[in-house]
């Protein structure tokens, strides 16, 4: 039986959330771990955008955006508009400030205080959600949790001391639970770089 093919890069948060969704849904794929500075031609032939993740379905359909791959894996009908909107807000509003925070030298006008203030508005929104429940939309890890957590992890790792000392106890607890979760550890297992002709790597 032909499996979906997933082009991925272990440390990319977009690829992380897709692997989380696929593993959580109990779907098995052929994993192709790529090096972003030397992308395989096979990936570029199916997706000229040149970024991961990219999913190639057995029927030839190509899904290029992590948000859409997550919805495909978890079942779009099971995901609420509120969950979608919170993830999209992460992608469009929080991620640009995260990039400035992580790569300050890329912006000659970088101001740490302003960046933390802007990013902090989204962090405060998550904190408000988590005051009510263990996870963002209830007592069970869902679409929004796996769609957002890899980016919060990336943000926290820029200055972990600052993050852990910030006044967001529920967000911090949610983050710590995520990085210690077996499900996260499984999707972060290292796989060798893929080359054409290599044996198939199954995931998970």
In short:
The chain is an alpha+beta fold. The protein has helices at 13-24, 41-46, 66-74, 81-102, 112-130, 143-158, 160-165, 169-180, 182-187, and strands at residues 5-8, 29-33, 54-56, 62-63, 202-203.
Molecular structure report:
Helix 1 (13-24) links the parallel strand 1 and strand 2. The chain is globular. It is 53% helix and 8% strand. The longest helix is centred in the middle third of the chain and has 22 residues, at 81-102. The chain has a five-stranded mixed β-sheet with strand order 4-3-1-2-5. It folds into two domains: 5-75 and 185-203, Glutaredoxin (3-Layer(aba) Sandwich); 77-181, Glutathione S-transferase Yfyf (Class Pi), Chain A, domain 2. With 204 residues, it is α+β, with helices and mostly antiparallel strands. The mean pLDDT is 97.
For this entry, give a set of tags.
5 strands, alpha+beta, 53% helix, 204 residues, Glutathione S-transferase Yfyf (Class Pi), Chain A, domain 2, 9 helices
CATH class of the largest domain: Mainly Alpha
- Write out the strand line-up for the largest beta sheet, numbering strands in chain order: 4-3-1-2-5
As a percent range, the share of helical residues equals 40-55%
For the terminal residues, how far apart are their CA atoms?
A: 16 Å
């Amino acid at each position: 039986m032909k499996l979906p093919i997933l082009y991925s890069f272990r440390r990319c948060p977009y690829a992380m959330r897709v692997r989380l969704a696929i593993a959580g849904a109990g779907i098995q794929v052929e994993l192709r771990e790529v090096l972003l500075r030397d992308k395989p031609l096979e990936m570029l032939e199916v997706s000229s955008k040149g970024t991961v993740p990219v999913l190639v379905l057995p029927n030839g359909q190509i899904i290029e955006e992590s948000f859409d791959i997550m919805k495909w894996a978890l079942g779009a009908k099971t995901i609420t508009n509120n969950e979608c909107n919170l993830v999209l807000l992460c992608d469009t509003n929080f991620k640009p400030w995260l990039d400035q925070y992580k790569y300050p030298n890329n912006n000659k006008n970088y101001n740490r205080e302003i960046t933390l203030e802007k990013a902090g508005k989204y962090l405060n929104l998550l904190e408000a959600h988590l005051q009510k429940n263990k996870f963002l939309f209830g007592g069970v890890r869902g679409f929004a949790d796996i769609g957002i957590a890899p980016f919060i992890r990336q943000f926290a790792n820029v200055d972990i001391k600052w993050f852990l000392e910030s006044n967001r106890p529920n967000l911090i607890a949610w983050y710590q639970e995520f990085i210690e979760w077996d499900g996260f550890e499984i999707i972060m297992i290292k796989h060798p770089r893929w080359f054409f002709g290599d044996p198939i790597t199954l995931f998970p």
